[in-house]
Specification:
about 800 residues, alpha+beta, 4-stranded antiparallel β-sheet, 37 strands, elongated, 6-stranded antiparallel β-sheet
């Protein structure tokens, strides 16, 4: 159907139907795919050529059907254009070819008149044929292979001021320029954009009927909903569109030139223009009056407040008042063991899928089951309306397995709606030593105005996910590492202090047997973690598969606490948790004894022994050796893979040769190399596991050293926050950088700034971050930092001053 735009009586615009052609002759099915029009065969008026999905061509002259011809070998049709200069139809095929057919060749191949082939087709159908009109085979004028699927074609002049007209062919990644003879004269590669449509327009009108056609600019539509404007082959403009344009043209409507007509894949036709809306009112010159400086100042302050609110809130006032609120409640006690056979079977299937999950038989309700705890996440939208497509992610410590660490919430309604509740099941594992209890929940969403937002909630997992109480060891073999903390408060009984851990024990005689009669002064915590052969450095560490414990002993006469264990990293979590609970118990009773003037008003923890630098450095060396082992294994794997590729190429060359040379045992070498690659792959995986375990031990030991530094040098929280950023307990190793060089560079910067003693130290140049040969420089910097902190240097003030 052909329409034209007409002006209606009321001043609006509408569509008027000019022609309507029924496709398909004598009721045959015809599914149109593409079309072109032009003065075929030198005619005065335009004709229409339509191509169907099965490669059938139908020509209509002045509304009447002229002839039909089917192209031989057409599987999938493509775009086509009519070239008036050569009186030919240029079309694309599914084989990545561009073919040109002379119009008279198509007309001759269709028969002397348009009905001869139809009669032959019907006769063939009556004799048992398929009834398809074929006619003579049309021979193409020329064929050009471009190697890409053609998306669009146009005829125009874009190559240079003296260039001739040509055929522009738009492929999936390349745009070709072909002469009318089929020769490729230019091509342009699209590296980032995915073009889908092409359009041409002349920025300057034609010079006249006999003049050369003007040079044209290019319009390219992309899958990224962009419109690219090219002048020659240079990009001069880019604009965003609301949909993907599959057809583009530039037209003049009324007196307005340069309007862009675009058609999308849903059939929506839009008329667009580049630029801004024209002014609807005339500009009136300002009166030459004295400026009102008070009004100018008030306006300036008002604009500053708007800018400040936008910078602090990052959105509109409505977005600020409407937010997503997260709240997590996590019980102190573990989940009871499964009660039904179905629950027991589900728990065992989960353990089979994740073999490192911890299984315990010391539940308060009796029985055995997974060591797990279920937290509850409350999601509520503050404000009116609702928020959609909320993505929630749960980040837990490495030794905790989260059954569902991410999930999607379709909609959260605001107002007085009840908060949505989601269970978060946390399970303990035996693979890594616990180093912290903090977990976070993060929700990402978009506001009504499209601004991205996040909401975060932090919570502590139960201590029971990390360890359980065990009967204290009678011998001293499990106390190779000991440290003593002094407090300015009387000794505290351990059972009330760790009542959540005591509540995990079974009632009755079993609990008394586990904690014993000295539970208020001695408690032994056994981790769910099972030690690996190479998890800890040194020769007096736990054996492979043996559980690791940590024991707290309280002095009877003074506020002195001793923490001992067979492993130095295992002391950290219990020591940190002990200090945290002591601070929570005694932190609010400051000044109860009236000792503010004597300095006894606040609860303090002190450490008077030497810092365990030797053991700390041994853990650092062990982690550094694991990194070196992984690099060596990766290097060997890379060498064997290169050797495998070389042998494979030689064998392929000999297999393809007509007179191949003897293999000379190359096949055996290839098989042996393959076996070595498999073994080295297992070696790399084992080295990665060793490095992960070493990083876990280093994280625990670094956290313990930081804790002892704080107690030894009486550092405040601000100083410790600064120190943790430089001597970080977060061990993250990657291919390019590791913990050693990162911490060494951070401590070097610290010694040049806050802890610098002389101007020479402050002027030291920073070294590039690369894996060092050894850890001697890092150890020296750690020792220097601790020495200067011992002499009273401050970190929070940043001036290297004394306390």
């Amino acid at each position: 159907v052909v329409y034209r735009v007409v002006v209606l009586a009321g001043g609006g615009r509408g569509l008027e139907q000019l022609h309507k052609h029924e496709l398909g002759v004598h009721g045959e099915h015809f599914s149109a795919f593409s079309m072109c029009h032009g003065c075929f065969g030198g005619a005065v008026q335009d004709s229409i050529l339509v191509q169907s999905l099965d490669g059938k061509l139908e020509v209509y002259e002045q509304g009447a059907h002229s002839f039909t011809h089917r192209l031989a070998g057409c599987l999938v049709p493509g775009p086509m254009v009519f070239v008036k200069e050569m009186d030919a139809v240029v079309m694309a095929t599914s084989a990545g070819e561009v073919m040109a057919y002379k119009y008279h060749t198509l007309a001759m191949a269709a028969g002397d008149d348009g009905t001869a082939d139809e009669a032959a087709g019907k006769a063939g159908a009556g004799d048992g044929g398929v009834g398809i009109t074929v006619g003579k085979k049309a021979q193409p004028y020329w064929v050009r292979k471009i190697g890409e699927t053609v998306l669009d074609m146009r005829v125009g002049r874009v190559v240079g001021p003296d260039g001739d007209s040509g055929i522009l062919v738009l492929g999936e990644r390349t745009m070709f320029t072909l002469r009318f003879s089929g020769v490729v004269v230019h091509q342009k590669r699209f590296s980032e954009d995915n073009p889908v449509s092409l359009g041409l327009y002349a920025p300057q009108p034609s010079s006249g009927p006999g003049g050369r056609p003007p040079k044209q600019n290019l319009l390219v539509g992309t899958l990224q909903k962009q419109l690219l404007v090219y002048q020659g082959w240079s990009l001069v403009w880019s604009a965003a569109m609301e949909s993907v344009p599959i057809a583009l043209a530039v037209a003049q409507f009324g007196d307005t030139r340069g309007l862009i007509v675009a058609l999308d894949d849903e059939g929506t036709l839009t008329v667009n223009y580049l630029g801004t809306d024209p002014a609807t009112s005339s500009v009136v010159p300002a009166r030459a009056a004295e400026p009102d400086y008070e009004a100018i100042d008030a306006e300036h302050r008002r604009l500053l407040n708007i800018v400040r609110e936008a910078q602090t809130s990052g959105g509109s006032a409505a977005d600020v008042n409407q937010r997503l609120e997260l709240r997590v409640t996590c019980p102190k006690l573990l989940d009871p063991p499964p009660a039904t056979p179905e629950e027991v079977e589900a728990a065992r299937e989960l353990v089979e899928a994740h073999p490192t999950l911890a299984w315990s038989s010391q539940h308060a309700a009796g029985g055995s089951g997974l060591v797990s705890a279920t937290a509850r996440l409350f999601v509520k939208f503050i404000g009116s309306g609702e928020v959609r497509n909320v993505d929630v992610a749960v980040s837990a410590p490495d030794y905790v397995f989260v059954r569902e660490n991410s999930f999607h919430i379709p909609v959260v309604r605001g107002g007085s709606a009840t908060p949505l509740v989601f269970p978060i099941v946390l399970c303990a594992t035996t693979a890594l030593l616990p180093n912290e209890l903090c977990a976070t929940v993060t929700a990402t969403y978009q506001t009504a105005s499209g601004q991205p937002r996040t909401a975060t909630a932090a919570f502590d997992v139960p201590l029971g996910l990390a360890c359980h109480l065990e009967a204290p060891q009678a011998n001293g073999g499990h106390g190779n590492f000991k440290l003593t903390l002094d407090t300015n408060r009387p000794p505290c009984q351990l059972v009330p202090l760790f009542e959540d851990m005591v509540a995990q024990l079974p009632d009755g005689e079993d609990a008394a047997q586990v904690i014993g009669s000295t539970a208020n002064s001695v408690l032994c915590f056994r981790y769910h973690f099972l030690a690996a052969p190479d998890h800890f450095p040194g020769g007096e560490e736990p054996r492979s598969g043996e559980a690791v414990d940590a024991t707290i002993l309280v002095s009877k006469s003074s506020g002195r606490y001793r923490i001992q264990s067979s492993s130095l990293p295992a002391i950290y979590l219990i020591c940190s948790e002990l200090v945290k609970r002591l601070q929570a118990r005694f932190g609010s009773d400051g000044g109860s004894d009236g000792g503010e003037a004597k300095g006894e008003d606040t609860f303090r923890v002190t450490y008077s022994d030497q810092l365990p630098f030797q053991d700390f450095f041994a853990v650092i060396d062990h982690h550094f050796d694991c990194r070196g082992g992984l690099l060596e294994a990766n290097s060997l794997l890379n060498d064997r893979a290169h050797q495998y590729r070389v042998i494979e190429k030689r064998l392929l060359v000999r297999f393809k040769d007509k007179n191949p040379a003897p293999l000379a045992q190359l096949d055996e070498v290839l098989s042996e190399t393959h076996q070595q690659i498999v073994e080295l792959g297992h070696r790399v995986e084992e080295a990665q596991r060793r490095l992960k375990r070493a990083a876990n031990a280093l994280s625990c030991t670094t956290g313990l050293v930081l804790l002892l530094i704080q107690f030894c040098f009486a550092l405040g929280e601000e100083d410790m926050e600064v120190l943790r950023t430089f001597l970080t307990p977060q061990v993250q190793d990657n291919v390019d950088q590791g913990w050693e060089e990162q911490v060494d560079a951070a401590l070097t910067h610290l010694l040049k700034t806050s802890l610098a003693k002389t101007a020479k130290e402050a002027s030291m140049l920073a070294q590039p971050l690369s894996m060092p040969r050894d850890t001697s420089k890092l150890k020296r910097h750690i020792t220097i930092v601790c020495d200067r902190l011992a002499k009273g240097a401050m970190l929070a003030s940043g001036g290297g001053g004394k306390k």
